[in-house]
């Protein structure tokens, strides 16, 4: 592979995971994350992901990768739309049920998910809208990076289909290592599902919908089950009312 493609994989496999762990370490070191800090986190992540997509798309085009190879085409619109919407609804329901299940566990049994929820998830309507923008950005950008670009490159260098999906899913899981071992394994498994859909439908569209659904439900329902309610907090009451 050309050096710039190697560099992109180095960023996906090493730099991004390191960056995520360092940012999470800083967040965990403080007892409370303010609205301003949370909004800054959302904004910086959105900006970073779109810049990353722009750079990767530029290098992919320079090396002759086509829209079809990158999963940016739609062969059968009706079939893909049905799969995208149906899958998103199913995944959203499963995510909601899982959050509700975790919310019934003792706080000490929730592990890193509890700390993540308290610091990252939106805790007011002011934070919810920017978070939803982040959730949709992640669905678009991460699918292009891991299921579009990474799988296209891995197939191009001769890996078998299953190996390309596995390697891209490993990269995806490691990129979410800031969520702890359990979160990383779960993300890897989700990556396998998303990668398989990208190849089955020859398009990123279903994976984008499914990925976004997971993150949207996390932000909309997660605070209800993972974030302790603070008495007399109108913002929290407002968020709970709207979610």
Question: Can you describe this structure?
Answer:
There is one protein chain. The chain is mostly helical and 243 residues long. It has one domain. Helix content is 78%, strand content 0%. The chain has 9 helices and no strands. The chain has helices spanning 3-28, 35-62, 77-103, 112-120, 125-156, 161-175, 180-200, 205-226, 234-242. Helix 3 (77-103) runs parallel beside helix 8, helix 5 packs antiparallel against helix 6 (161-175) and helix 5 (125-156) runs antiparallel to helix 8 (205-226). The longest helix has 32 residues, at 125-156. It starts with a helix and ends with a helix.
Radius of gyration computed on alpha carbons: 18 Å
Q: Strand pairing plus helix content: what structural class?
A: mainly alpha
End-to-end gap: 47 Å
The stretches of 5 or more residues where confidence is low (pLDDT under 50) are 231-243
Structurally, the number of domains stands at 1
Strand content: under 5%
Provide mean pLDDT, rounded.
Answer: 91
Helix content: over 70%
Individual helix count: 9
**What is the H/E order?**
HHHHHHHHH
Most strands sheet = none
Task: Specify the overall morphology.
Answer: globular
Q: Give me the count of strands.
A: 0
Fill in the keyword field for this structure.
single chain; 243 residues; mainly alpha; globular; disordered C terminus
Short description:
With 243 residues, the protein is mainly alpha-helical.
């Amino acid at each position: 592979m050309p050096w710039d493609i190697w560099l992109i994989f180095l960023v996906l496999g090493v730099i991004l995971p390191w960056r995520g762990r360092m940012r999470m370490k800083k967040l965990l070191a403080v007892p409370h994350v303010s609205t301003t800090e949370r909004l800054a986190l959302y904004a910086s992540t959105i900006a970073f992901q779109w810049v990353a997509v722009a750079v990767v798309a530029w290098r992919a085009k320079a090396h002759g990768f086509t829209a079809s190879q990158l999963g940016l085409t739609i062969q059968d619109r009706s079939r893909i739309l049905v799969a995208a919407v149906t899958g998103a609804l199913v995944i959203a329901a499963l995510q909601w049920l899982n959050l509700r299940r975790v919310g019934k566990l003792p706080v000490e049994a929730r592990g890193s998910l509890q700390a993540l929820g308290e610091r990252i998830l939106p805790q007011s309507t002011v934070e919810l809208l920017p978070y939803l923008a982040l959730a949709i950005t992640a669905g678009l950008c991460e699918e292009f990076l891991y299921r579009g670009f990474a799988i296209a490159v891995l197939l191009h260098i001769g890996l078998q289909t299953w190996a390309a999906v596995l390697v891209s899913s490993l990269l995806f899981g490691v990129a979410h290592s800031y969520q702890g071992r359990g979160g990383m394994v779960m993300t890897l498994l989700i990556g396998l599902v998303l990668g398989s859909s990208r190849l089955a439908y020859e398009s990123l569209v279903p994976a984008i919908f499914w990925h976004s659904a997971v993150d949207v439900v996390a932000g909309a329902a997660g605070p209800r089950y993972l974030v302790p309610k603070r008495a007399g907090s109108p913002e929290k009451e407002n968020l709970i009312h709207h979610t």
